[in-house]
Amino acid sequence: MTKMTIAGAQIGGIQKDETREEVVARMIALMDDAHEKGVAFIAYPEMTLTTFFPRFYVEDRADFDHWFETEMPNASVQPLFERAREYGMGFTFGYCELTPEGEHFNTSIIVSPKGEILLSYRKTHLPGHAEFEPERTHQHLEKRYFLPGDTGFNVVRSQGIIMGMSICNDRRWPESWRVLGLQGVQLVSIGYNTPSQNNLSKDEGIERRMYHHELSVCAGAYQNSTYAIAVAKCGMEDGNHMFAGSIIVDPDGFVIAKAQGEGDELIVAEADFDKCTFGKSTVFNFDAHRRIEHYGLIASQTGVKEPSE
Ligand code: CDT
Q: Domain CN hydrolase spans what residues (predicted)?
């Protein structure tokens, strides 16, 4: 029997000139609050340490290397690691990783209550585009600044359960969830930065975007019988709005905690990980019911091929 109090630490907008130290102080304030509430595991968003810079274009991408971390942990985040160790709290957060080989990834890590990095995940599904597109009102240049992740979706045992990660756009792809589900995942943490502005469709307002976010996380959790924490960096960043809507979802696909505002905010839920067993042993007993002989296209074909007329 594993029960645990889990939390999502939503972070309000981070402006361009905010320092890592200032952001880490905000993260620690939420961690202090979480500790008072008995939280054992806390999830922070995608790219927690900096503004969501892929909205800006630079010709020479090296000019943006200052948004990246060349080691983890480093001096800026050390106080967060120390506070978590003091509290015996596990955590996860996202940051931009620049490897010694000069590769750029959108990364997140799971850290044990002892402060050890147990798992590193590099974002697989990079939305947006690689070049400046003048017809867009807002640029989304993740494909310019990051390589597609090379880790795949892995899990780790920590704090008595099986944990895994996705990052932002990954939550919309059932394939991400299923690969984690096939490893018995019981808690998926997903950080996100989702711009509210729409570039190419006037019909798609914030309500629809929010619905698609919740739909994706609830479906992923239900169909793999896992808890999920989906946590935003949101609000206004340098004049650009990103929606909030951080949620914790149970293995039945129900939202059990939800952020009310668009600033720094803690959402907390009691998780009983035994509840993962029901779905995993009945309707989503993969071993009993999956038919992999019919799923080949999923792993062999990227785009749609329609039949000939
Ligand atoms: N950060 C991130 O992946 N955001 C995307 C925005 C998609 S619209 C270009 C998301 O899926 O939320």
A: 4-273
pLDDT of 13 > 80? The answer is yes
Query: Mutate which of 56, 129, 140, 217 to test ligand 1's pocket (most atoms within 8 Å of Cβ)?
Result: 140
Q: Which of 96, 168, 218, 234 is catalytic?
A: 168
Q: How much is the pLDDT for 128?
A: 96
Q: Is the CB of 139 under 6 A from ligand 1?
A: no
Mean pLDDT of the chain: 97
Write down the pLDDT at residue 201. Answer: 67
Q: Domain 3-300 adopts which CATH fold? A: Nitrilase/N-carbamoyl-D-aminoacid amidohydrolase (3.60.110)
Q: Which atom of ligand 1 approaches the CA of 213 most closely?
A: 12
Percent of the chain with pLDDT over 90: 94
127 Cα: distance to centroid of ligand 1 (angstroms):
6
**pLDDT digits 0-9 by tens, 26-46:** 999 999 999 999 999 999 999
pLDDT for the residue 75: 98
CA of 68 to the centre of ligand 1 (A): 19
**For residue 171, how far is its CA from the centre of ligand 1 (angstroms)?**
10
Catalytic position from the list 96, 97, 123, 218: 123
Give, using CA atoms, the residue closest to atom 11 of ligand 1: 169
